[in-house]
């Protein structure tokens, strides 16, 4: 069974920074694409950042140039560095990892940005 364990997040300030990490674990797991989604109260889940196994990244305009995604393939871990935070970044952040076994999701971690 694949498990994704998230860490980081919490309370940040407008203009500040926070970081998230997500480690995927399972015997013999080889992850492909990894990334982050978020869901704010009353809104649909939206993609925040994605990264391929070779390191190609994609960001929506809302976070471009503020968020940076990276990964450590040896550790099956994906990271999200969030800078220049805004109150509208407040949401539950979910990581995911794709593999031949399917797409796996973390439990979610709360990020709250105060103004």
Can you characterise this structure?
This protein is mainly beta and 115 residues long. 0% of the residues lie in helices and 55% in strands. The strands form 2 sheets. Strands 2, 4, 5, 6, 9, 10 and 11 form a 7-stranded mixed sheet that branches. It has no helices and 11 strands. The protein has strands spanning 3-8, 10-13, 18-25, 34-39, 46-51, 57-58, 67-72, 77-82, 91-99, 102-105, 109-114.
Brief rundown of the structure:
0% of the residues lie in helices and 55% in strands. By secondary structure, the protein is an all-beta fold.
Report the sheet-strand fraction: over 45%
Give a quick account of the main beta sheet: strands, pairing sense, barrel closure: 7 strands, mixed
Shape: globular
Mean pLDDT over the residues = 95
Helix-strand topology string: EEEEEEEEEEE
Could you tell me the number of beta strands? 11
- Report the structural category: mainly beta
Topology overview:
Elements: E1 3-8, E2 10-13, E3 18-25, E4 34-39, E5 46-51, E6 57-58, E7 67-72, E8 77-82, E9 91-99, E10 102-105, E11 109-114
Parallel strand pairs: 2-11
Antiparallel strand pairs: 1-3, 3-8, 4-5, 4-9, 5-6, 7-8, 9-10, 9-11
Looking at this protein, list some descriptive labels.
115 residues; mainly beta; four-stranded antiparallel beta sheet
């Amino acid at each position: 069974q694949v498990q994704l364990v998230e860490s980081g997040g919490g309370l940040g300030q407008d203009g500040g920074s926070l970081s998230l990490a997500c480690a995927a674990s399972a015997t013999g797991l080889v992850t492909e694409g990894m990334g982050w989604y978020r869901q704010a109260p009353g809104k649909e889940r939206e993609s925040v950042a994605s990264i391929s196994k070779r390191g190609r990244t994609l960001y929506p305009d809302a976070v471009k140039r503020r968020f940076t995604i990276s990964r450590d393939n040896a550790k099956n871990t994906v990271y999200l560095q969030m800078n220049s935070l805004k109150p509208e970044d407040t949401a539950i952040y979910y990581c995911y990892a794709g593999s031949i076994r399917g797409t796996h999701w973390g439990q979610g971690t709360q990020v709250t940005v105060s103004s």
